[in-house]
Amino acid sequence: MKLYKHLGGGASRLAAIWAEFNSPDGLPHRTDFSLKRIGALASSFLVLREGNAGELVVVQSGTAIDHIWGRNLVGVKSGAMALRHDVDLAAHKALAALEQPCGIHIGRTLHRASGNALKHETLYLPVRSQHGRQLVSVTDFAERLHMHGLLGDSSPVTGGEMYFAYFVDLGFGVPEVGHLMVA
User: Fold this and answer.
1) Helix (H) or strand (E) holding 6
2) pTM, to two decimals
3) Which of 52, 88, 119, 126 is a plausible cystine mate for 101, CB 3.0–4.6 Å?
């Protein structure tokens, strides 16, 4: 998979780990992404699964992700993380990627009540687990020093917008809708 050559540092590392464990016999297993293996990526690491009502549910979230949202996200459903109009698009793409295993690359800007904005890109990749398919992800922040400054900003996220979202073919095809289209 050549994808990781076109990504930020964290997403590139996640893609390399995924490619290391991917095989013609099946997707990498969730346990291939242990804290020891992902190392410094842990703070911006997130794992999602499909919930009972077709919503996404957070299974694991890193400390930087939790801090940005102002709470521990484990168990939180995607609807509770809604950002204006983009939650339906992101959830729709993620559910489609679980159904037909493919990656998703999303770029988003979050806005805080303080007026600060946080531009970031997230790569989601499918894995198998004892509970079915899940998505593992890593978020790369546009300005690393700016992100560290925002860690001290505890004002709530008030909105945001997605500036791109597309499926990534990992060798299993992609859903027809939205393949490499800018959202």
Assistant:
1) none
2) 0.85
3) 126
